[in-house]
Amino acid sequence: MESCTSIVSRKNAMAINFARSHAQSQISIGFSCTILEIQNIGHSRRIRPWEVIRTWFH
Description:
Blueprint: H1 4-45, H2 49-57
């Protein structure tokens, strides 16, 4: 029989992993939306997207 603490710690690890993967997917979704917006702006204003990305990361 497992001790209560090991079961709880395993549940916590699962919750942390779930939260981490969820956050990563949210970040990637937000990032791809930003890329699309940058591309749309770039087409209308003739901005190079990678310059915007470079300033965005620094």
